[in-house]
Design a protein that fits this description.
The chain is of the alpha/beta class and 257 residues long. It has seven helices and eleven strands. It is globular.
């Protein structure tokens, strides 16, 4: 499986910073190792390793993991990297904190898969361990805008040119699944498109009451939810966190016991 090539992933999300400080600060509060599920090519992993966190990373995509391994080696950092499916994985140790950042939980496209992931994460927590999951709350206004039109999402400077990133999004409100078709156009200084990349992905969103039921069914004893920051494209997060906000990223904390 390839979600996006590592260089394209870095291009698209290099400015998504707000959750990095949140996760680093959170990881440094626990007494024990940390597991990052869906670590990708290290947008969050590398800063946590730089902060001295005892860290393992899990991802399904071998290409992203290989890129992360190169990044860690280049910086003289260490983290245990493992290829595996978040719905069913086995790690050699138990963790004080398991985190699933940046909407990655929503790549589970059925409620059955979402429950399997939550249960597997819970099984890998130590007795007092905690799950931290960040995912957006589905705003009716935002979902209504997913009408299938091709929209320019962002334009990113790249060398002497730019990269233009377009999304075409539709939503199945019955199954709660967003479908995203993405184009990335690399444009040189003269305005000529030199490369075009396209790929598709889907996300199954969940509202607050459904997420609470999922956590309860998966066996977690208690949970809390807050809005840690307004948007990803920033260097700050709310301190203290704010109550849940419709349409924004929510941070869920759920305890094994």
């Amino acid at each position: 499986m390839t979600y996006a090539a590592p260089d394209l992933y870095d291009l698209m999300y290099h400015d998504f910073r707000a959750d990095i400080g949140f996760h680093v600060a959170d990881a440094k509060t626990v007494k024990g190792p940390v597991l990052e599920v869906c670590c990708g090519n290290g947008r969050v992993t590398v800063p946590m390793a730089e902060a001295g966190v005892d860290l393992d990373g899990l991802d399904l995509d071998a290409g992203l993991l290989a890129d992360l391994e190169r990044k860690l080696a280049a910086r003289g950092l260490k983290a245990g990297l493992h290829q595996g499916d978040m719905r069913e994985f086995t790690m050699p140790r138990r963790y004080a904190l398991v985190l699933i950042p940046f909407n990655s939980f929503y790549h589970n496209l059925t409620q059955t898969d979402q429950l399997a992931t939550l249960r597997c994460c819970r099984e890998h927590l130590d007795h007092e361990g905690r799950l931290c999951l960040i995912a957006y709350h589905p705003s009716a206004k935002i979902l209504a805008a997913d009408d299938g039109a091709r929209v320019l999402w962002k334009e990113v400077p790249e060398g002497e040119g730019v990269a233009r990133i377009f999304n075409q999004m539709t939503v199945d409100r019955v199954e709660q699944v967003q479908r995203i078709h993405r184009w990335i156009e690399r444009v040189d200084a003269s305005g000529r498109v030199t490369q075009t990349h396209e790929y598709d992905f889907r996300l199954r969103y969940a509202g607050k009451p459904e997420m609470e039921l999922l956590l309860k069914t998966a066996g977690y004893s208690r949970w809390e939810v807050c809005t840690p920051f307004e948007k990803y494209e920033a260097d700050t997060y709310y301190d203290p966190p704010r109550p849940p906000v419709d349409g924004g990223p929510l941070a869920w904390s759920a305890w094994r016991h």
